[in-house]
Amino acid sequence: MKHLFIINPVAGGSRKRFLENMQTITEFAQTLRDPFEIYITHEQMDACDKILKEAEKNPAEELRIYA
User: Fold this and answer.
1) Which residues pair with 29 in a beta bridge?
2) pLDDT confidence of residue 15
3) Domain residues of the chain, as ranges?
4) Between vectors from CA 51 to CA 47 and to CA 52, what angle results, nearest 5°?
5) Coil, strand or helix: which one is 40?
6) What local confidence, expressed as pLDDT, does residue 61 receive?
7) What is this structure's pTM?
8) 9 with 41: CB under 8 angstroms?
9) CA 15, CA 13: separation in Å to the nearest integer?
10) Pairwise CA distance, residues 27 & 52, whole Å
11) Statement: residue 27 has pLDDT above 80
């Protein structure tokens, strides 16, 4: 199973909070036995495009998305 973490860098309003969240997510993801990807959005609707691409590559039961 692949784990996809989608992060919006402007959510929460501060760079410090973004970096803290990235550290927490990275530490958690490294404990998983499955492959993972941390995707940082760049523009509006970017996450939707990424999810569609990943869904095409991975069967639904083999993809877990966190946003």
Assistant:
1) none
2) 84
3) 2-66
4) 120
5) strand
6) 85
7) 0.85
8) yes
9) 7
10) 26
11) yes
